[in-house]
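Exam prep: given the inputs below (a chain plus iron/sulfur cluster), describe the expected output before reading on.
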Amino acid sequence: MLAQLLSIPKILDKSLSGAALTVQEGVALLRQQDSQVIQDIRQAADELRRSLAGNTVTYVVNRNINFTNICEQHCGFCAFRRDEGDADAYWLTQQQMLEKATDAVSLGATEICMQGGLHPGAKLEGKSLPYYVKLVESLHSRFPDLHLHAFSPQEVQFIAREDGLTYTKVIAALQTAGVQSMPGTAAEVLNDDIRRVLCPEKINTATWLEIVETAHQLNMPTPVRCSRDILRRQNIKSSIWSICDRCNSAPRNAGILALQNSSCSLTLAKTPLNPSAKK
Ligand code: SF4
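Solution:
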């Protein structure tokens, strides 16, 4: 009922001023059914988008390479994961990865997004980090100009857990090997109550934020511009949004747009992660 009492023009003015909306204000906008009011909301959204991002659209020619679909976890929404031994389980060799990258480059790709299932067997001499580092190094040495967007916060936590390392150590090693940006995946629904139902084995909200924040401290860009304080202030627990480019269930930028439209005041990156992004 409260949402119905809120003034739509005031909410739109507040939004255009750059202030973050409350959950109640967002709900009030979503409840509108009058076509003129909906048109006003559309116009305000477009104005806000223009002021934040301008009218220049950039894109990156990217290929996703998922090196394995074998995963130790069992997220309820995941159609990608397989158990080792399943008929359609796969684990690409480095040669196969290079062939896929070569194929992508021949088609104009300037970026590879590399992620995979959480495979406890993905190790070199019993260690996880060297396996991931070698994956990166083999691609980076063959294609030094190719932007490598790789390994989600969940994968960073997995490597750190397997090898008993800090997140800083893992991210720094991947960065040194050639990773240039981190996907914002594994956020899914960033609400611990929902995560406990949908993906109870996954890292919780605080860990996801800690790893993204650590990446930012190491100057590793992510699609997320946020700080723990902002997320807390804006009551992230009430925000439902999704980023998933591991399983290709949504384009990466859809996640950013979802953030932009959520009650979190996260801002749309004005510059592409990849300097080779085309206009
Ligand atoms: S969403 Fe990711 S972590 Fe979860 S089961 Fe699928 S591959 Fe594994």
